[in-house]
């Protein structure tokens, strides 16, 4: 999962403080692993360095330093490219995909297309495995089948998510 | 247009399956194409502007949630159902403009069908079921029987040739159904959930034998399924959602 | 017991709460059973129809004096003469009436006697007279229609009958006197052969109806079985499902009884005015005999239950679906052969009966016929199975049909059993009616190429007889008239009681006429002849006893037994030549004294009978009607008879026409049940049909397959029917001591059976087209 892309995506709806970003991330994606502050600042400084975000302003006051970040044009392009690029089908993909779907919904992009593209990528791999299975011996078949069943499970999840996009959208935007 | 196919030519095509798939190029456009298909049953729209294109020898999976209109798309493409709007062309001819007799002849000679529950004629033996499409087209009984046996062997079900459909397993039944679909050496085979009633192992076997046989003879396949493992036997898939079709297929590996 | 009743009640409930499908099934059964019940009610009404009609016939005959004493002329007495006629093959009954006092007797159906020149006509006759078709008849019955005859005065609603008023009728002109209406029409006891025929006819016509009811009870059975399977899933055992199914059938048949009663009541109103060949009746005449009606009401629901319980034995309803005929049971042939064999044996061993003597036991005839015919019905499924098992090859449509029959031939042959029984029965009946034909149809020697119409009048005067001949010659369409005046000629003198007075006839006609009747040779007016019947010496000698040239004969025979009357003596001239007779156009030989008008003055003959044989031009339509019209002008009471080659006995004709009516109704019923089961079968295979259509199967291929599927069992059924029907026919004919006269009688009946199949196939094509639409692919 790419925390940088996720934070960038969260900034797309408007400039936020580092503190706000952490809270929004935790609320939407960090159910099992909340983000450390250190992780936020190190990521933000990397993004700053790459010119994907800029500092919108600094709020002085009690507590730690409070910078307000805003996304740059280059940042938006980067998010766009990331969302469009299907993930390489591999195990435990759902947290990344989930993040992508939510971000797409938050930023008004088509989450359905995102899922369909990912489906196509999964199927592409399945085709390759199916072909290998067809040509191979029994051990090849068994190995390929293992992968195929995992891919199939992911695909089922993709389909289920696709079917519930509307429901998810209202929940995310709430 | 296909009156030129004499029975003799049929048999040649059966006995010596040619690989049309390898020789066909994309130059002449799709073998079977459709655009802007609309079809409503009562007030429920089943297709709402679907497009489709099939190249010779290509295996295309049609996927989508149930009720999305994928079966209706297949029925329209096969000339079984007339769409309310839109055009379908097969081999350069407008299918929607054909009368019932011509569409029937088309289905008899150029198309083959596999359905979910085999739909073999229960009174006939498996061999007779396979021979049926040829016999319907006037092929002599002996020739039809020989061709049927050839295809039963090809689908590895020649052992049940003399049995009736209620005496064989579901997987065997589907393979007989595939043999029946391929026996006329069709250019397009339409398969509607061909493994829908089978367990995954029998389903895999049916799909493997089916797609291999289709590829060998150069028959294009339109494969309606909701199972990704079945769709994985295709070259490409299109997704039907709310009566519209979309193609998300990515370029083959390496283009990334 | 109460458990069974509870299951029956549950089934009955399902019949009405089974959703749309359940309703359709119940309705179909009710309609089928209803049709059958209506027919059974109609059959049960026949005794009453006959009885009511003959009672009305009795009530309108002028009372006979009964004995020697003639009726006195009183205030209520009426003079009458039978003036019935025939019009284009239809007979029209009529009485001419002349009241003799102020309060004349009035026949039933009339308020008052019609006045002179007026008539009261039956509604049917009135319609005929008012229509353009009745134009010629109007000339014959020139009376003004002033009243309609009420139902009470008519045999049936289509009867043509009239009462005409007269002011000139006299006893002298041939009229008789009565003082009341109502008596008894002489009825002959029904011939025993006809009794046998009627019994067989009832069996033959009603057995298919019963088979039809049994089939109707099973309408929609396949879908019901699915519901029963669902009941098995929730714990019903096999016995329970059977009784629940029986309950459904019971409810359907009970509803069928209601439908049947309604159909019967409605149908009799409808049928009331229609004539089927010679059969017609008033709606009110259709009243079923109470015992028979009760039998129908009890037997039909009972049969529904029994049939269902019986058929459910071959169906294994499992919780997950229906398995038909778990293992296709091998049909055994021996008991199926036993039934018809027993039937023929019963007929062969029962006492013989002749046409004119002896009695047939109707019960034995019925048992024999029922055994034979039910035997044929049970033999059919075996035959279909055995025959189809050997069939191989053929075109696709044929292959599909044959294979379907090999797997499920039982259903098909059950539907055809009705046709088989009907055709077999009809064949045996046809053989029987044809075999006894000769007894009831006189083939006459008449030669219609020479003359076609024969008019006879008991005229008191030879003068008017001559006028009649003259008038006929002037009638349109008449080519020639052979007219003679005839009277008796007896040998004068006293004869005691046991002596027979030599008697012969005097026939007067011109030379041309006499030449038609005898080989007179040369002839001039004034000649006389003594004519001997050719080839009958004994009769010739008898003629010579009375006809003695030079001697006198008495031409007024009243004086022979009434001593107060004067004999009218006429001397046969000595010049009378003896010649031989030749057959006249009526095929009769006439003999006795022949005289030309110059030899005897016919105007003086007191009781001459005038006969005219009229040769009409066949090219003139209605020539016979013109002749009748002329006759009616001369005297309405004249007998006019067209000469046909055959003359049918009325009793026989009515049995045969009833048979035809019944056979047609039965065939219709069977065609209907075939159609229903055909469509049901198609619906069941809807998805398969859709798949075949997807494969590009031509409609014609499927239609042909449907045709073969019906035709194969029907052809086998017809073959069986021909064999069984012929055997039954031979047995029946043998029983009444007759020979088979025509072995090919089954041809038209077998043809009818075949046509039925074609019609059924044709009618099942529109539903087939509808089912062949791809909708069938859309489920799941």
Automatic annotation (TrEMBL), chain A:
InterPro entries: Tscrpt_reg_PadR_N (IPR005149), WH-like_DNA-bd_sf (IPR036388), WH_DNA-bd_sf (IPR036390). Residues 7-77 form the Transcription regulator PadR N-terminal domain. This is PadR family transcriptional regulator.
